[in-house]
Amino acid sequence: MRDDLQGLDISHEQLQELTNLPVNNKLIIITDTIGRFYQQLLKKAQAAEIGTLVFLGLAISLCIYLLIKLSSWVSLMILILWVGGIAQTGLYFIWKQKNKILHQNVTSSLRILLNDVERYNSVIKAIDINDQIEDVGNLGVGIQERETVLAGLKLTRDDLVRAIKTERILRENKSFIITNADLFTNNLATLASMQVNEEATEHGRLLNEALQISLDVQHEMKRLQNNS
């Protein structure tokens, strides 16, 4: 990803921090984690020197030999499976509890904003893929007026972050409205003034996508204030 795109997307970690909700809650499967660790170890081993590979091979062979020779290896395997089962059960209940918290607190407004974030991140990803295609020699696919496009996306990002902060404040303080000019002042007018009528061009399409997301966010912010 090029430097001018770095930090422009809204990550899952940032979303969880902004919403104070487990919006990206996934069930951790121990076997999948072990599998990923094994794949990473295998990749490192493939890139390692021959001496390191020989050492790892001997170490693994010794561990397997000792495991087979031990009279209690069956008990050890049972213990490992038992501990793994308990750990997986604990992870399941943690995942289920987080899901419960999310379903109890998520609002329709937040769902709309999360969808807008997904659309916004998709635009960033599309630009990144286009850049990769250009970097391998396809110079004709470069985005026209790149700085203007990125400026529009930055304004859109600011509006999305501001709207999510606003939704959280209203959600966590249902008894009254927090009036904060910094949160409710957005850059929609600035974005709209960029003249994005050239929908047929790539930069025009991207800017119009950013503008549409900002319009959705602006509408949602007004609805949030009215409902509260």
Question: What are the SSEs and their pairings?
Answer:
Blueprint: H1 12-19, H2 30-47, H3 50-69, H4 73-105, H5 108-135, H6 146-172, H7 181-184, H8 188-192, H9 202-227
Report on the structure:
This protein is an all-alpha fold and 228 residues long. It has two domains: 140 residues, no CATH class; 75 residues, no CATH class. Helices cover 74% and strands 0% of the residues. It contains nine helices and no strands. Helix 5 packs antiparallel against helix 6.
Brief descriptors of the model:
2 domains; 228 residues; mainly alpha
H/E element sequence: HHHHHHHHH
% residues in beta strands = under 5%
Beta strand count: 0
Computed CA radius of gyration, to the nearest angstrom: 25 Å
Q: Return the average pLDDT rounded to an integer.
A: 71
Unreliable residue runs:
195-200
- The helical percent reads over 70%
The structural class is mainly alpha
Keywords: Membrane, Transmembrane, Transmembrane helix
Transmembrane segments: 50-68, 74-95
Question: Can you give me a brief rundown of this structure?
Answer:
The chain is mostly helical. The protein has nine helices and no strands. Keywords: Membrane, Transmembrane, Transmembrane helix.
